[in-house]
Amino acid sequence: MTIRNSTETKVRIVARAADDLKAEDVLVLDVRGICTFTDFFLIASAGSRNQFRAILREIRSRLSEGGFTPPRAEDEDSGRWVVLDLGDVVVHLFDPRARAHYNLEALWGDAHSVDTASFLTA
Amino acid sequence: MNLWPEASDRLVDQLEEQLKPKRFLHVLGVLHTALGLAASHGVPPEPVAWAALLHDMCKSVNKRELLRMIERDGERMPPEDLEFPGIWHGWAAAGEARRCWGIRDEQILEAVRHHSTGHPGHGVLGRILVLADHLEPNRNSAAQRRPILERAHRDLDAALAEVLESKIFHMRAKDQPVHPRALMTLASLQTVAKEA
User: Fold this and answer.
1) Which tens digit of pLDDT belongs to each residue from B73-90?
2) Is-contact A59 A18, C-beta < 8 A?
3) pTM
4) Chain A residue nearest residue B196, CA to CA
């Protein structure tokens, strides 16, 4: 898979932050050639509101460390569905119920999911 | 719905009274454009007219009052929408539509609720309303509107994708957060187009 370097780095940073904080079902979808407004979706779930907030905080702080500007802070207390729009990467963090409700995976099926583990290893 | 046309005349009178002249003209423009699109796509005009007339009826209500109305009318606005006050007027208008105008047609109510963002599950009425809201005559010059309006008359989904795309890029350029539902509506339109 050829991805622009900074795009891959962003996916890697976000996937690792989510994984390190025990986000559930971290999924990366490759939507290049389908969507014009982004290249990848990264979808993850958080089991509790505290975990939800912690994951978002971690993603933000690691993006900053990596030299990327995290999107403008929104009120993250909804704890249900927050989207971080990084341009070429769009991150969706859900609580499990909202994730099942919106079922974004169903839009693309398995065809476009990327091996998430490849972003978690060095 | 046999409330037509008397009730709609009353609604037009009420809108003229309550909305600023510019906003009232916008609503009439949306009505005009939406009815044209409905005719092109074989959609019955009455529900389209209701959705068009109702969609901005709460546009000049302040934020606190909007939240109060949404709560009062039992509109179940999802928490992620709390972060986007610019779309609350759609939820409040759907509540008003049920409470004051007896609208029970979920297609109309859904179109009104989601007219600012679109919705991945939108029916044809919802798609017409989002498009008409952008393509009505008061918004832009005829030259600017014509190409996309012509496309909308041929292919609703292609035109809607184009409108949402330009809206999303415009908001990103201004560093404004884009509503997740707008992103997902565009994603679903583009996915369907690709796989068709």
Assistant:
1) 999 998 889 989 999 999
2) yes
3) 0.87
4) A34
Peptide bond into B5 cis (omega under 30): yes
- Domain with B21 in it: what CATH number? 1.10.3210.10
Q: Does an H or E element contain B106, and which?
A: helix B106-113
Q: What is the DSSP letter of B183?
A: H
User: ipTM value of the model?
Assistant: 0.77
User: How many Cβ contacts (< 8 angstroms) between chains A and B?
Assistant: 61
Domains and CATH numbers, chain A: 5-104 (3.30.460.10)
H/E stretch holding A27 reads strand A24-30
Amino acid in position A99: R
Size of chain A in residues: 122
Report chain A residues whose CB lies below 8 A from the CB of B175: 72
Of A37, A79, A107, the CB nearest to B168: A37
| Residues whose CB is less than 8 angstroms from the CB of residue B63 and which lie 6 or more positions away in sequence, other chains included | B85, B88
